Amino acid sequence: MTSAYDKPVPIPSNADLTKPFWEAAKRGELIIPYCNSCSNLFFYPREVCPNCFSKDLDWKKMSGKGHVYTYTHVRQAVHPSFQSANGHIYAIVQLDEGPKIPSGISGCEPKEVYVNMPVSVVFDDITEDYTLVKFQKC
Amino acid sequence: MTLRGRGAIVGIGEVPTRRIYEGRSMYGLCAEAAGLAIADAGITKNDIDGLVTDGVALPPAIAEYMDIKPNFATGVSMQGASGATATMVATSAVSSGICNTVLVVMGNSRQDAERAGRPAGRGASGPSVRSEWEEPHGMAPGANTGYGLMYRRHIHEYGTTEEQLAKMAADQRFNALENENAVFNGQPISAEDVLNSRYINEPLKLLESVMPCDGAAALIITTPERAKNMRNKPAYVLGVGLKQGEANIWQRDKFTETPAVDSVRRALEMAGCTPSDIEFAEFYDCYTILAAMCIEDAGLVEKGEIGPFYEETDTTYKGAFPINTDGGQLSGGQPGLAGGFRHVIEGARQIMGKAGSRQVEKSDLCLVNG
């Protein structure tokens, strides 16, 4: 945990809505929005269920297991702090429970990543307020 | 009810696409393109009673800038698909009798953003899905990331190779060499040059990605009855189809499938033709991989067969099946949403027989994808 973190932190468009997600990440849990009316699991969080428009929404804790659905090896990043000689992986991870989530892959070289690579969740404390949900090879 | 044959493109205008026009604004470039289209159609601005823009250019501001007072005006706000959508809306407007002659216009000035104190075309634009869920993980510039994700998945599912898509970019550059309006006119490249260009987000390379530019384009569309007495051979709209996709690529169920599956099917049904009837095509190409997937989804090739198709097919204006005959956006440059609109303009230009040294041999039936 450091105040010197220079990469972009999450900027929510509705902080009230997504607060539970970030609080859960802080305590090491991955939770995903769930609709009590139609049992839909979805991501990103919305104020109404994208399937049935219900506002009776809750959060479900995920197993943290999934696979790399697809990825790209970013060599030229938007933010200068992401620039590095080796680049980094930006991935879409599909959770075993179904939803897809954009994330980073840590703990291995970019060239080791492949489509369908099994991954498990890791939590990266970047600031006092935010812990990023990332994944590593498992 | 159908729009088949109910709209006729009778004039086109294009301010050449350039990296930057110093001291010019989007509205100024739009008005210049509008003037060219009006002159090409052989009408006066007072004949225009309808106006459709991309929505970035506000219809009241365009109307005021060129001092017209149309009876119908709207901005479509359909991102890259704005040009094709605007043409569809304009055809609907003249077909329904809301108005008779519509100006469709869009353009871009990169200095406008600087004048407003924003960095041009980069980074966050306020809190959004992107700023909360994507940017903390380190995206590539502009829309690059999503297309890198699609490209990787297409390679995984279909065995597509980077060599195959490099050929697409090279074929289009050949076409741009005959297009003085293209930003890369006079700069030939080979498929090898494409392969050797640096990765922005692997597997997507620099020469497979559009260059943000300045420019503007306009067309005049009217009823077929009015078109009969006008100076140009018209390009008739025979079919239109639209399918709204997701705003964020990662929200798709299937990353290798595009909304063109449905939009093209609907357009072909209205036109009463099949993919094999199409003689040449203009496909939205912000990145090679997007045009590649849309060409598959249009049914011009089997799904997953775009790689072998490019290996075997000369898609230059001289070739067996010409695609992006003006160089597309990859070699023509992307002047904002006018980049996608230029696909419509070029399709019409070829059908009107105005494409000069890059005129395709068979130019009666074109499929345009926005």
Strand line-up in the sheet with most strands of chain A: 3-4-5-7-6
Proportion of beta-strand residues of chain A: 35-45%
Largest interface: A-B, 36 and 36 residues
* Alpha-carbon Rg of chain B, integer: 19 Å
- The share of residues in helices of chain A is under 10%
Strand order of the largest sheet of chain B: 3-2-4-7-1-8
What is the CATH superfamily classification of chain B?
Thiolase/Chalcone synthase
CATH fold-level assignment of chain B: Peroxisomal Thiolase, Chain A, domain 1
Mean of the pLDDT scores of chain A? 95
Terminus-to-terminus distance of chain B: 23 Å
Number of strands of chain A: 7
Task: Give the structural class of chain B.
Answer: alpha/beta
Stretches with pLDDT under 50, minimum 5 residues of chain A: none
Class computed from helices, strands and strand pairing of chain A: mainly beta
In terms of DSSP E residues, the strand content of chain B is 5-15%
Q: Tell me the span between the first and last alpha carbons of chain A.
A: 25 Å
Please provide a written account of the structure.
The complex is a heterodimer of chains A (about 140) and B (about 375). By secondary structure, chain A is mostly beta strands. Helices cover about 10% and strands about 35% of the residues of chain A. In chain A, the strands form 2 sheets. Chain A has a 5-stranded mixed β-barrel with strand order 3-4-5-7-6. Chain A has a two-stranded antiparallel sheet with strand order 1-2. In chain A, β6 and β7 form a beta hairpin. The mean pLDDT of chain A is about 95. The radius of gyration of chain B is 19 Å and the shape is globular. By secondary structure, chain B is α/β, with parallel strands linked by helices. Chain B has a single domain (about 5-115, about 210-370), classed as Thiolase/Chalcone synthase (Peroxisomal Thiolase, Chain A, domain 1), CATH 3.40.47. In chain B, the strands form 3 sheets. Chain B has a 6-stranded mixed beta sheet, with helices on both faces. Helices cover about 35% and strands about 15% of the residues of chain B. The interface of A and B includes residues 7, 9, 12 and 76 of A. β3 (about 65-75) of chain A pairs antiparallel with β5 of chain B.
